[in-house]
Specification:
alpha+beta; about 35% helix; Peroxisomal Thiolase, Chain A, domain 1; 10 helices; binds coenzyme A; 2 domains; about 325 residues; globular
Length: about 325
């Protein structure tokens, strides 16, 4: 059983908010935001949109592109830290019904900005074991609903959006299909570093400096480890697709590893940090632009609240 990504999709809400628009009502500036994060704009969900409605649109795009019917899907995983309902039901269950995936099991994966890489490894394991033949993995977030829009230290960082990939093991796959076992980690001693709400407030809390330091340490470690476990060198990687949290984190990682920055895909300037959705949105853009060629080694890198991190390694 060789799992591979069969197709991708994304959905971005219409409303685009620039740094200048935020600066008009907050004590911040385009210059500060761009120089500290690399962000220029972000998209925000409309009042009638939800995490599951964004997820649905991204999943529909992925299914259509693969020419698959909803009834063929065995499992739906939604990586999200901003679900429609805190607790339950899962966004995945709502998507399952609305998409018409009558045969699919459904659950959310809660690992914040690492959620998508955790969900991809879950999908890979189901496919390899034969427990599923077709899995929809979706990352979807509406962080705009959990942000304090008067807190300049956090609200400037995030945006809303959704991305999806369809993973399968269909016959007729090219022989170069190759999906390696992922590396996933968690350090719960940092649980209070980044929380979706606080005891005394309904809004997200973040110790930005601590998250930053965690990311620039853990990412090179995981990249080095998965490459050595698989007998690959940095030069073998065509693309590293990192979680888009901060351009400075990506630049520091590139420098630390000695890899040219142009092998890291970056779109944070446009979308800001869409948490669990950032990697599948990036993959869909890359796919659309024809940047992903059959046989290319691709590494997905997630990190964030938990604290958690993980990497998925595969050939496109
Ligand atoms: N505009 C203007 N000034 C701002 C500001 C804003 N939007 N946000 C913070 N500041 C100010 C602070 O008040 C502080 O002022 P002071 O020195 O007078 O107290 C100063 O800028 C420096 O703040 P600090 O928080 O130390 O900045 P930083 O260099 O650590 O950058 C982040 C802040 C958030 C950009 C950075 O820590 C970061 O990117 N961390 C990772 C966050 C992240 O990726 N989270 C999601 C993980 S998945």
């Amino acid at each position: 059983m060789v799992p591979r990504i069969l197709s991708t999709g994304r959905y971005i809400p219409e409303r685009c908010v620039s740094n200048d628009e935020l600066s008009a009502r907050l004590d911040t500036s385009d210059e500060w935001i761009f120089s500290h994060t690399g962000i220029k704009t972000r998209y925000l969900a409309a009042d009638n949109e939800t995490t599951s409605s964004l997820a649905l649109r991204a999943a529909q795009a992925a299914l259509e592109r693969a020419g698959k019917a909803p009834g063929e899907v065995d499992l739906i995983l939604v990586a999200t830290g901003s679900p429609d309902y805190p607790g339950f039901p899962s966004c995945a269950s709502i998507v399952q019904e609305q998409l018409g995936c009558s045969q699919a099991a459904a659950m959310d994966v809660v690992a914040a900005c690492s959620g998508f890489v955790y969900a991809v490894e879950t999908a890979r394991s189901f496919l390899v074991s034969g427990a599923a033949r077709l899995v929809l993995v979706i990352g979807s977030e509406v962080f705009s609903r959990i942000l304090d829009w008067s807190d300049r230290a956090t609200c400037i960082l995030f945006g809303d959006g959704a991305g999806a990939v369809l993973l399968g093991t269909d016959e007729g796959l090219p022989p170069n299909g190759d999906f390696r076992r992922s590396l996933l980690m968690s350090d719960g001693s940092g649980a209070e570093t980044l929380t979706s709400r606080q005891a005394h407030s309904p809004y997200l809390f973040m110790n930005g400096r601590r998250v930053y330091n965690f990311a620039i340490k853990i990412v090179p470690e995981l990249v080095g480890k998965i490459l050595s476990e698989n007998g690959l060198a940095l030069d073998d990687l065509r693309w590293i697709v990192p979680h888009q949290a901060n351009a400075r984190i990506i630049e520091s990682t590139a420098k630390g590893l000695g890899i040219p920055l142009n092998r890291f895909y970056m779109n944070i300037a446009r979308y800001a940090n869409t948490s669990g959705a950032s990697i599948p949105i990036a993959l869909d853009e890359m796919n659309e632009k024809g940047l992903l060629k059959r046989g290319d080694w691709v590494l997905l890198v997630g990190f964030g609240a938990g604290l958690t991190a993980g990497v998925n390694l595969f050939r496109w």
